[in-house]
């Protein structure tokens, strides 16, 4: 007598739904498509976000200390300029990337690192809105008697250019010798390009990426996350006089993630803002 066949095993239960990258509520309630899923079991958190600050500060102190020991009389128009500017940023970006790799699923799912075609439209719109908002903030600061703030990187590059102009020998036609001009131009252009390309990616991974996702993971609403990450972004520049301007720009940058659930639009907005500033600077030094 043939054995009766056993019934097939029941199908496995469906996996639990993943939280979207843009916020804690359902996508259908926000009117946005499910672009990047948010991993609910990622092991990174607020401690890692705070540690990203520490990495930047420690790297800055170490590099300044090395410069003071190795080349105390080094000029700004030297390889130390890009090292001091880029070194801490690269260290911070590497730390944030490592956190996503070691404690999560990678920067794409953890931080919403993706760029879509619509981001190239949203980015310029946010740039215009951000500049208009900043113009209003600066006007209000001037009315209150505050000095118009200047970006620290811009001041650093201007100081490097002035140092080269003041310390370089002039030829009979009043122009700086090529040997001095080429070195100065190389380091200034390098920092300007770095500020317009790498800095937006790194800072958006930190603030609209790790910080944003961390606060969402703790159950905060997206609007509170927008305000807190904008304040953290402004405070991390260690320029109290520019805090209102940087906070306003941080809100414009954060709107990219708030609207799309990704940091692609924020990166494009940031790159355009920094790029326009660096172009304006290079045409005046």
Task: Describe how the helices and strands are arranged.
Blueprint: E1 19-20, H1 27-30, E2 37-38, H2 46-70, H3 80-103, H4 107-111, H5 119-143, H6 152-167, H7 178-217, H8 222-235, H9 243-260, H10 264-282
Antiparallel strand pairs: 1-2
Helix pairs in contact: 2-3, 2-7, 3-7, 5-9, 5-10, 6-7, 7-8, 7-10, 8-9, 9-10
Commentary on this structure:
The chain has 285 residues and is an all-alpha fold. The protein has one domain. Helix content is 67%, strand content 1%. The protein is built from 10 helices and 2 strands; from the N terminus they run βαβααααααααα. The protein has a two-stranded antiparallel sheet with strand order 1-2. The longest helix is centred in the C-terminal third of the chain and has 40 residues, at 178-217. The protein is globular. The chain starts with 18 loop residues before the first strand and ends with a helix.
Give the count of structural domains: 1
Percentage of residues in DSSP E strands: under 5%
Q: How would you sum up the major sheet? A: 2 strands, antiparallel
Low-confidence stretches: 18-36, 165-184
Give the overall average pLDDT.
82
In short:
By secondary structure, the protein is mostly helical.
Task: Write a concise keyword list for the protein shown above.
single chain, 285 residues, mainly alpha, two-stranded antiparallel ribbon, 10 helices, globular
């Amino acid at each position: 007598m043939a054995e009766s066949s056993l019934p097939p095993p029941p199908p496995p239960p469906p996996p639990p739904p993943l939280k979207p990258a843009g916020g804690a509520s359902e996508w259908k309630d926000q009117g946005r498509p499910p672009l990047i899923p948010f991993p609910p079991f990622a092991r990174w958190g607020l401690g890692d976000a705070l540690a990203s600050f520490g990495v930047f500060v420690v790297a800055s102190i170490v590099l300044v200390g090395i410069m003071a020991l190795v080349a105390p009389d080094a000029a700004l128009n030297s390889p130390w300029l890009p090292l001091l500017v880029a070194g801490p940023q690269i260290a911070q970006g590497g730390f944030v990337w490592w956190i996503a790799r070691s404690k999560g699923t990678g920067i794409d799912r953890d931080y919403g690192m993706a760029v879509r075609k619509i981001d190239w439209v949203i980015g310029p719109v946010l740039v215009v809105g951000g500049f208009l908002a900043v113009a209003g903030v600066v006007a209000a600061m001037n009315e209150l008697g505050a000095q118009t703030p200047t970006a620290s990187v811009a001041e650093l590059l201007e100081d490097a250019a002035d140092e080269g102009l003041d310390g370089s020998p002039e030829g009979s036609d009043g122009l700086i010798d090529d040997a001095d001009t080429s070195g100065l131009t190389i380091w200034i252009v390098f920092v300007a390009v770095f500020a317009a390309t790498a800095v937006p990616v790194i800072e958006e991974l930190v603030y609209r990426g790790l910080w944003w996702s961390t606060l969402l993971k703790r159950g905060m609403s997206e609007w509170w996350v927008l305000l807190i990450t904008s304040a953290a972004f402004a405070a991390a520049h260690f320029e109290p006089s520019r805090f209102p301007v940087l906070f306003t720009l941080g809100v414009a940058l954060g709107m990219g993630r708030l609207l799309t659930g990704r940091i692609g639009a924020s990166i494009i907005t940031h790159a355009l803002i920094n790029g326009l500033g660096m172009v304006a600077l290079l045409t005046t030094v």
